[in-house]
Amino acid sequence: MNIGGDERRSEVALAKELFDSFMSRNLAQLTYPFMEEVDPEALGLKDYRNIVTEPMWLKRSKFRLSREPFVN
């Protein structure tokens, strides 16, 4: 799929808006478990690093999305 510059910016703007809504106080009760990186040792998840090879959490995703230019 080949997306032009304006369309790409539009998609990035929409994604940023979506992340802002995820991180709002209105949705905090639903999203708080996904805000920070999982600490597998503290949670006793011995296989976590073997199963989840590229961990992602909302704050990290928002940071990556905020970088200019957007990097996939």
TrEMBL record:
It comes from the Eukaryota. SUPFAM superfamilies: Bromodomain (SSF47370). Keywords: Bromodomain. This is Bromodomain testis-specific protein. It comes from Fasciolopsis buskii. The lineage of its organism: Eukaryota, Metazoa, Spiralia, Lophotrochozoa, Platyhelminthes.
